[in-house]
Amino acid sequence: KCSYHQDRLWFIDQFESGNLYASSPVYHNIPVIAAIEGSLDIAKLESCLRKLVLENEILRMRIKDTDGVPSRYLSGLPDIRISVNKSLYGMSDSEWSSLSASGCALLISEAKEPFNLGEDSLLRVSVYACSEQRHLLSINIHHAIVDRVSCRLFLQSLFDAYTGNGLPEKKDSLPYAAFSRWQLDLSRDVLGYH
């Protein structure tokens, strides 16, 4: 079962897809761009991302339409491949400092790519190689699986794992499914619905 928040996002997606938008709305996409100076080991980044996705089931979640009702399901561990785009390769120092118009257009285009809640991974990661020592890490996450706090934790965990600090120890972690069940079991009075 989905949480109330996920139900709402699914409903908006179903209502607006094909009506207000040609495909799914994109305003629930959370794009994050990180500029990385220095060499970047894509295989290591993929491995760190794979571990993070494996340890956090919410990152494998999809929302399917089951007879007009949203239902949450977990995909198996996806074959995580980070795409490397070299269209910005050769960016000058001044373009790097200000992120050129062409670079911004590419990143905005990627951030506006809609998610299919039932089929797509709700987490996308790509790298724009600007030179051997300069990269832009582009992460796009659907709001159905993160909020501002959990997005920050996800990014910190990814960077910690990549830099050798390892993934943080899980302390009293509550799987999202347990949270959803707890939330759904609350009475409407407790939640303030009348």
Count helical runs.
7
Please state roughly what percent of the residues sit in beta strands, choosing from under 5%, 5-15%, 15-25%, 25-35%, 35-45% or over 45%: 15-25%
What gyration radius follows from the Cα positions, in whole Å? 18 Å
Beta-strand segment tally? 6
Largest sheet: number of strands, sense, barrel closure: 4 strands, mixed
Euclidean distance between termini CA atoms = 22 Å
Tell me the structural class: alpha+beta
H/E order of the elements?
Answer: HEHEEEHHEEHHH
> Low-confidence stretches at least 5 residues in length (pLDDT < 50)?
none
Give me the side-by-side strand order of the main sheet: 1-6-5-4
Average pLDDT, to the nearest integer?
83
Based on Cα principal axes, name the global outline: globular
Quaternary state of the chains: single chain
**What share of the residues lie within helices?**
25-40%
What does this structure look like?
Helix content is 38%, strand content 21%. It is of the alpha+beta class. The strands form 2 sheets. A 4-stranded mixed sheet has the order 1-6-5-4, covered by helices on one side. Strands 2-3 form a two-stranded antiparallel sheet.
